[in-house]
Amino acid sequence: MHITKEDYQLYKPLLFSLGYRMLGSVTETEDMIQETFLKAFQINEEKIINKKAYLCKIMTNLCLDLLKSARYKREQYVGPWNPAPLLLEKIHDLDPSELVIQKEGLSIAYLRMMEHLVADERVVLLLREVLNFSYSDIANIIEKKEDNCRKIFSRAKHKMSVIKGESLNYEKNKSIIDSFIVAFQIENTETLLELISNNVTLYSDGGGKVTASLRPIVSATNVLALLYGIIKKAPEDFYFEMENINYQPAIIFYMNGTFHSVISFYISHEKINEIYITMNPEKLPVHTKYK
Question: Considering the entire predicted model, what is its pTM?
Fold first, then answer.
C-alpha cells in the first residue's frame, strides 16, 4: 500500500484539521501538510497499513517538533497571542467533503485554551475528541500505552472544561453580534452592557508588528472605552463586514483600503465573554477559503 496523489486530496482536509488545531497557524499547518506528504511518498509502501493513521502520525510528530522548537518564540511573543483566524466561505455553501474541518474545537476561544495544554495533552484531546480516533490508534500515533492516553485525555478535558458553556450556534451568535454592532454604532451603553458580561475580557494581538494593547483588557467599562477609542481614531473610509471565521460569525475591519483586523467572540449563555482582536499582519487571512 502506498501514498498516491489521490490520497493527498482525500486526507489533506483531515491533516489541516489536526495541524491547525495544534498550531493555531494556517501557514505553519500548510507547511506541515506538505512535509507530511513528502515524507510519506518516500516511505517503503510495505510499511504503510493504515494510510489515515500513518499520515496523522507523521503530521502529529511534525507538529509536536514544531511546538517544542517554537516554545521560546511563543514565550517571547509581544502582547496576547491569538490563533491566526481562518476565513471561510459562507457556512451554508460548504461542500460536504469539507465538513471534517467543521467539528468541535475550532473556535478562537477553544484554540486559545489549547495553549494551556502540554503537547501530549493537546494531541490526544484532538485525536480523540475532534477526530474520533480510538485509544489504540492514538497510542500507536504518539507511541504511548493506551492507559496513559486515557489519563492524558482525562487531564486535558478537565483543563478545557472552563469553556464548556461556549455557544457554537452560528445563527444565534450572529444575532447577538449584530445587536452588539447596532448598539455600538448608536452608543447605546445600556444594551451593550446587556450583551456583554461584567468581566468581559479583550485580547488584542499585534505581535509587536502593529500598535496593540500589551495586556488583556478586563471589565465591560474598560473594553467599551477601548473599542470606542479605536473607532474614533479610525479614518473616514473604514468599513467592516461580518464573515465566517473558524465557523463562527466575526467582524473583519478594513482601514485605508486594506485588512486591518479580525474581531472574534467567545459567547456563552447568550453573553459575550471574551473578544479577540487580531491585528498582527502575519496572521490576517489572505484567502477566502481553505482548499
Answer: 0.87
